[in-house]
């Protein structure tokens, strides 16, 4: 595998790995988990009525990252979303699990900054990205 192919393969796999956490999280909020997630948001001071927007960001943002569509915009949006989630939901550093989740979100936000700066690579379902990178 040449260097360009390795880079594109790595970008595709990296995008898939980043997208997976958001797609799973978004779809998991349907059904029985919806009310519990709303209550958790309310307990953190985030209005539960925003849950449909949260689900949309997770699923649509995750899909955009996965397929490489408007990657820089999606990466910027998910950077802000992930950083906000860290600060709003995981900043109780007196609890070890919350500290771990905070750092996980910070690491994911960092990955979105890299994706924002580098773009999706050439292996995407976005014809415009292929034209721009050629």
Describe the structure.
The chain is mostly helical and 134 residues long. The chain has one domain (3-127). The protein is 77% helix and 0% strand. It is built from six helices and no strands. The chain has helices spanning 3-28, 33-43, 51-67, 71-89, 96-118, 127-133. Helix 1 runs antiparallel to helix 3. The longest helix has 26 residues, at 3-28. The chain is globular and about 50 Å long. The mean pLDDT is 93.
Concise account of the structure shown:
The protein has 134 residues and is an all-alpha fold.
Could you give the order of the helices and strands?
HHHHHH
> Rg to the nearest angstrom?
16 Å
Approximately how much helix is present in the residues? Answer: over 70%
Structural class: mainly alpha
Mean pLDDT comes to 93
Strand content: under 5%
Query: What is the number of helices?
Result: 6
Number of domains: 1
Q: Report low-confidence residues grouped into runs of 5 or more.
A: none
Alpha-carbon distance between the two ends: 19 Å
Morphology: globular
The number of distinct β-strands equals 0
Largest beta-sheet details: none
